[in-house]
Amino acid sequence: MTKRVLPLTEGDAIAQITAALPGGIAQAAQLVGRDPSTVYRWGNPDTDDSTPVSCAIILERAYREAGGVGSPFGEYMAAVASLADAQAIAENIEVHRLAIEINRSAGNANAEIGELALPGATDKDWREAAEATETLLQKLTRIVPLLKRGPRLPDQQQQPP
User: I want to staple 143 with a disulfide (CB 3.0 to 4.6 A). Which of 3, 98, 129, 130 is the partner?
Assistant: First the structure.
């Protein structure tokens, strides 16, 4: 038995559906009242064309009637949504990781600067304070664009790829 591959692109979904239809892409085009070249374009990642939901539903039904298993368009959309959620979570983890680094660097810079107030601070102490402060500044510079971008929550609507 052939293992079923989940569609990860709109083109994959269309290919799965048309492979199950006896008339292939020509039958799919006829079912949705479109030209076969239009159906091809829907699956082409280099075009901005996308399958209308009404056409996807018709093609899904025909796919199942032809013996297809699953829901290629539904699975593709679920995969896109899951990927968007994973990306949002990863971006938020990066903000937290940088916040930890910033706190460590801030503590170190604060300690180095505090030592300058003590009697006998040397040129080396001043250099170390400057280096610690520069390290803190670099970390702050890395987090600013992420903070300006705003939160990325898995439930926020995002533009599909």
Answer: 98
